[in-house]
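ARCHIVE CARD
CATEGORY: sequence design from structure
SOURCE FIELD: tokenized fold
FIELD CONTENT:
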């Protein structure tokens, strides 16, 4: 039987592409990744696994409020032999005395739209400030790292409804993934999104995971994130729309809004 965490990693995440994009967006030698709101820390696990293959000492810190997710992250890291260099913590990543608060980072990553857990601009600004301080400690105190988070938007961002996609499982299953916009308020920017899964085996549905994940988010726009980063002292902000890049390939930032299309998911990266 598949659980919600396994279904999520198979249907939603692509750590290989995320790690490649983060390294390309950083543009230099990045060894220390901090993944806030990490869930099962799939990106951190991939970061450490790739570093172990290269032998370059890459390390990662993953932080999440959910002890169940962190427990699963530890299990998966052991299974994948990605535990070397990986530190996982249960806690609030957004506060000044967060777990591993004094640790330096070359890259701080907030994925899966989790920046939306910060509902107020004041809280967003405070968290971006703390993150910039952590980035400034890396590179022998010279900083230069990036804070990167993803967000979505476009014509259908505040429309209610669902989309369904099918993804292969690890043992011949077909996982039906359903993403639902359950509530959306364009005045406040607040949304409620839900993820459900159904598992099909040999043409029959054998497992149903309704509302496996339910999110109450503030949907921050690109402009809001960019302005907040610049206001707290990030030197520049770039936006990346193409996450499907090969390891070692350069990342090309968006230079024209028409590149985004009608609906989009982007990575917003601020340079400390």
């Amino acid at each position: 039987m598949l659980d919600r965490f396994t279904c999520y990693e198979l249907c939603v995440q692509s750590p290989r592409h995320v790690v490649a994009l983060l390294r390309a967006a950083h543009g230099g030698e990045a060894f220390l990744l901090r993944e806030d709101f990490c869930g099962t820390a799939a990106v951190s696990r991939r970061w450490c696994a790739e570093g172990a293959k290269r032998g370059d000492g890459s390390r990662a810190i993953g932080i999440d409020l959910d002890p169940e997710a962190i427990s699963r992250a530890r299990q998966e890291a052991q299974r994948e032999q990605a535990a070397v260099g990986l530190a996982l913590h249960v806690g609030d990543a957004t506060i000044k005395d967060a777990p591993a608060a004094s640790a330096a980072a070359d890259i701080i990553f907030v994925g899966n739209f989790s920046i939306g857990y910060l509902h107020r601009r004041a809280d967003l600004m405070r968290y971006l400030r703390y993150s910039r301080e952590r980035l400034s400690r890396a590179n022998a105190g010279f900083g230069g790292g990036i804070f990167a988070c993803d967000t979505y938007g476009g014509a259908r961002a505040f429309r209610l409804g669902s989309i369904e996609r099918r993804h292969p499982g690890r043992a011949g299953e077909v996982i039906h993934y359903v993403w639902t916009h359950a509530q959306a308020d364009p005045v406040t920017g607040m949304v409620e999104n839900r993820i459900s899964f159904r598992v099909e085996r040999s043409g029959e549905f054998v497992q149903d995971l309704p509302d496996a994940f339910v999110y109450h988010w503030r949907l921050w726009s690109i402009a809001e994130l960019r302005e907040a980063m610049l206001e707290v002292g990030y030197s520049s902000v770039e936006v990346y729309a193409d996450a499907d890049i090969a390891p070692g390939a350069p990342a090309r930032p968006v230079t024209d809004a028409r590149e985004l299309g009608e609906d989009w998911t982007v990575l917003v990266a601020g340079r400390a």
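CARD ANNOTATION: Residues 161-218 form one domain. The CA atoms of residues 37 and 114 lie 6 Å apart.
SHELF: design records, drawer C
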